[in-house]
């Protein structure tokens, strides 16, 4: 998956590790061949033309194994900015540690592209599993935004924005796990929803394809309120499926309950069906 998460891999163990293939500039440079170290200070600019990566920092430090010439440690520090095509990352410090196969970015971290954006305090990326984890400062939350298209009007792109206690990124599976009291807003229908945990699946374009919510799901839309233990939001067919203790109340249409309720994301289009063995109950307000 060549998504924004891949930039975490390219930042340090890709861009900095391949320093011999980069153009690097700075005010001062220190080289110690015996220790295998290279330090560049002040107004550091690095460019990897083959990979399309550019980096700006106040300090760039690289340490190689003197026997194998393999990079074992790399560090970028001081208002670090990295770009690759439409992808970008901002942070205060980035460290690559070979013995841990770990890249760590800290300090008001922002990573994103045209489809996805995550803002937190620290990102830890495991190079062995290709799994990243973004966490906030104590008492704060991770902010996120994703894009999905309107299938009836593909040229229209809508934002899903929100916050979570932490965000896990599974690069190989094209998915993110948002957990820790997730709250979100969808600009498509002006809906707000929340759950304890939401798994977001992205398509090949890195656009939002599906969300699976678990734990006290609740959604409010203009003219509709819904709750359930679990919910599946499918952005292709524009369908919401409520599972277990589902309950929906629509203005002027009453209330529906059941173990399974399927409905259009657009509240004006109403319901599709309920689980057959558990008939829906419809309560119509009497005026």
From TrEMBL:
Keywords per UniProt: Signal
Keyword Signal attached: yes
Pfam family, one: LptD_N
Disulfide bond is among the record's keywords: no
Signal peptide: 1-18
Domain Organic solvent tolerance-like N-terminal: 24-130, 171-267
InterPro entries in the record: OstA-like_N
Superkingdom in the source lineage: Bacteria
This protein's name: Organic solvent tolerance-like N-terminal domain-containing protein
Coiled coil: none
């Amino acid at each position: 998956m060549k998504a924004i998460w891949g930039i975490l891999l390219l930042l340090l163990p890709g861009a900095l590790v391949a320093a011999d293939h980069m153009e690097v500039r700075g005010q001062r440079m220190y080289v110690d061949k015996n220790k295998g170290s290279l330090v560049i200070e002040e107004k550091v600019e690095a460019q990897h033309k083959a990979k399309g990566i550019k980096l700006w920092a106040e300090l760039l430090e690289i340490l190689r194994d003197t026997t194998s010439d393999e990079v074992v440690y790399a560090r970028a520090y001081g208002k670090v900015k990295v770009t690759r095509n439409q992808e970008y990352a901002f942070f205060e410090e980035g460290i690559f540690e070979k013995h841990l196969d770990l890249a760590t970015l800290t300090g008001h971290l922002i990573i994103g592209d045209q489809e996805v954006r995550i803002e937190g305090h620290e990102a830890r990326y495991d190079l062995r599993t290709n799994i990243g984890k973004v966490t906030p400062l104590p008492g704060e939350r991770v902010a996120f935004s994703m894009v999905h298209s309107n299938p009836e009007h593909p040229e229209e792109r809508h934002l899903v924005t929100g916050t979570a206690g932490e965000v896990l990124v599974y690069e190989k599976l094209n998915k993110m796990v948002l957990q820790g009291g997730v709250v979100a807003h969808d600009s498509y229908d002006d809906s707000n929803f929340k759950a304890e945990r939401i798994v977001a699946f992205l398509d090949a374009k890195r656009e939002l394809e599906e969300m699976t919510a678990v734990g006290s799901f609740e959604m409010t839309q203009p003219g509709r309120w819904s709750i359930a233990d679990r919910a599946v939001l499918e952005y292709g067919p524009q369908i919401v499926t409520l599972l277990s203790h589902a309950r929906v109340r629509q203005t002027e249409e009453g209330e529906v309950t059941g173990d399974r309720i399927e409905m259009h994301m657009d509240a004006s289009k109403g319901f599709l069906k309920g689980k057959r063995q558990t008939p829906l109950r419809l309560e119509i307000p009497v005026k």
